[in-house]
Structure formats: C-alpha cells, structure tokens
TrEMBL record:
Stated name of the protein: C2 domain-containing protein
This protein's UniProt keywords: Signal
Domain named C2: residues: 12-130
SUPFAM superfamilies per UniProt: C2 domain (Calcium/lipid-binding domain, CaLB)
TM segment ranges: none
MF-aspect GO terms: wide pore channel activity
Pfam families: C2
Signal peptide stretch: 1-31
Species this protein is from: Amphiprion ocellaris (Clown anemonefish)
Any one GO BP annotation for this protein: defense response to virus
A GO-annotated cellular component: membrane
InterPro entries, per the entry: C2_dom (IPR000008), C2_domain_sf (IPR035892), Perforin-1_pore-forming (IPR052784)
C-alpha cells in the first residue's frame, strides 16, 4: 500500500536537489485520515428514556466535527464520515459519545486511538455502557 503522504514526499524529492530531499525526509509527513462506519450498540437508558446519541470527533488539538443526534436509539449508526488532511502518525484521535438531553448532554464514554498507517476497525467500550464501533483509514 502506498500512502498519500509518502508518495507526495517522494514526488517532491525526485524533482529537488539533495538538500531539499534531506529536509523532506526529516519533516513529519501529514497524511489523510478518514473516519467512517460509526455505530454503537447497547447504549444505556436513563430516567429520560433511551439514549439520544451523537459522536464528537477530535484529532490532536483539532475538532473534526460531530455527527447528527440519533434520538431514542440504543443501537444507532451514523452516516457521517470525517476527513482530515493534517493528521500525523501516532497522533491521537479522540471520539466522544454523548447523550443529547434538554439541558445538559451526558458524556457516555471516550475512545482514544493512536493513528497507524492502514485501515482498522475498532470496538471501544464506553464507560457508562455500550460499545462504539468505528473504522478509520490513515495514509
Ligand atoms: Ca437523552
């Protein structure tokens, strides 16, 4: 598999003199992150009923966005995909699952993952119950 970040660096190196080639190899490559296939199972109920779940997505210090709210659904899935072009290898992606409520949203759990090159499918157990499933491609 040829990653986008690596191939762009190689393209630059082939057209530039040695000095820049060295600089290129020293710089930290920024790659594309794509997060998709977000779904959850067994989200907990509270006094107000079944969870109205949504997911907030972060990468490093940046916020990538959040999904729509799936009302009254313990096993929701979200069609949103998140793409981020400035991710670095070993940077931490953070997914927060929240229950939307009238006044204060509840945080159901946090999933953190260090980015590795490739495509991965993960299950993450949420602190307050339920599991978040997601897939990411990085490279
Ligand atoms: Ca709720």
């Amino acid at each position: 598999m040829i990653s986008l970040c690596k191939s762009s660096c190689e393209a630059m190196a082939s057209s530039l003199p040695l000095l820049l080639l060295v600089l290129c190899s020293l710089s930290v490559a920024q790659c594309q992150l794509r997060l998709f296939n977000l779904r959850a199972t067994g989200l907990p109920s509270d006094l107000l009923g079944t969870t109205d779940g949504y997911v907030k997505v972060f990468c490093g210090a940046d916020t990538l966005g959040k999904t729509s709210v799936r009302n009254d659904n313990a096993n929701p899935w979200w069609e949103e995909e998140f793409t981020y072009f400035k991710a670095q290898e070993n940077e931490v992606m953070r997914l927060e699952v929240h229950d939307s409520d009238l006044l204060f949203d509840d945080l159901l759990g946090v999933c953190q993952r260090q980015l590795k090159l490739g495509t991965y499918e993960h299950d993450c157990y949420l602190e307050k119950g339920g599991t978040l499933h997601y897939t990411y491609t990085f490279g």
